[in-house]
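Hey, can you fold this one?
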Amino acid sequence: MRKFLMLTGLALMLTACGVDDGQPEAENAKNPESEPTDLKKAAAGKREMIVKLEQTAEPVAREKAVQEIKKSEEFKNGMMGEPTDETARKMSIQAIEMPAVEAALAKAYGSREEFMNAGIVYLEVWEEEYEKPGIWVGIKNPDERTGQLEEILQAKADAGEISADYIHIYKAEYTENDMREIENTAYQLLKTMQEEHYRPQSAVGGASLDIKTGKLTVSHNFLTEEQKTEVVAAFPELEVTFEQLGAMVPGEGEPDVLYPEPAVTEEPNTEGEYIFNVSEDKFLSGSTYYSFENADEKLKAGQRVEVGTTGSIAASYPGQGTAVVVEVMPTYQPEGADLTEEMAVRKALEDWEFGMDGIPMIRPEYDNQSDRWNIEFTYNWDGEKTETVTVDDK
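Sure. Predicted structure:
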């Protein structure tokens, strides 16, 4: 599956390490019963095979290559998974059959780029579920070049260089360039909608076409029901589903900061993460810097907040993300204290700057005997280090 990403200054898309602020909507926009027959076949995993390679010789040369893989540090160190026979098999398909198929395609079709107009090729071994492991070659309109491809690969199977069991050549609905065109059309449509949004800097989206199911998945955090209908109408031959990325972007007239009511609580509150500092269009909370328009007009250091994001946080330290909606938590005010926890923490943070010690955990405590707050900063970046800042309750 290929994904085209919408760009808003930075490339923003769900990765394996994204923040999940909402469950995918996974709503089908078309009735599967109305799908074209060929798409139903694909969805059922019944790809129509058009070439059947025969294993006429023992794959002796291939087995030697497998033994070499088992000796490799990559295999022994578990870089591709637990070092089992099954992992070795998967690695061998990627190392042996894949290059053989790529070379055969280039020879039969003139170049890899030329084949992109005729079909699609992909590896299917590392997924949790698959029909058959191996290299899948889909050809939209079989012709004499398909015969040449068969001859080249059969010769390799006859020589025992590859395993015929791991190469599957079938009749495809789309070529690689067809898929790119569909996904690019969806991308351009989403980009136009994103640019028209009230908060375009927070709106993100992407589209991917699954070659096996013929399903177009549109990921987003801003589409209205009307816009979803427009997207579906643009692809009448396809099943279109939608998945929500992170938190939905507020529309015009809707707040992007939610303030608590009441703002103060008499019970200690540990929800959310402290804001360490705020600038014009950015704030640091937890261990992440969030881009957030007019942040200094809406937020303050010392507040505890929960942040709804676009679903993607860059793996740096601190992390980098985009806040879509920020919910401010009620702040604790002990009996007899003049300051709230938020106010006391904000005072303690006045001289704090991000440095080599990293970002601390903050533990505030009010001492009614001395009428002072003790704000404990604990750093764990390079061994544990604790500092206590004392704040007068006034």
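Confidence is low (pLDDT under 50) at residues 1-44. Let me know if you want another pass with a different chain boundary.
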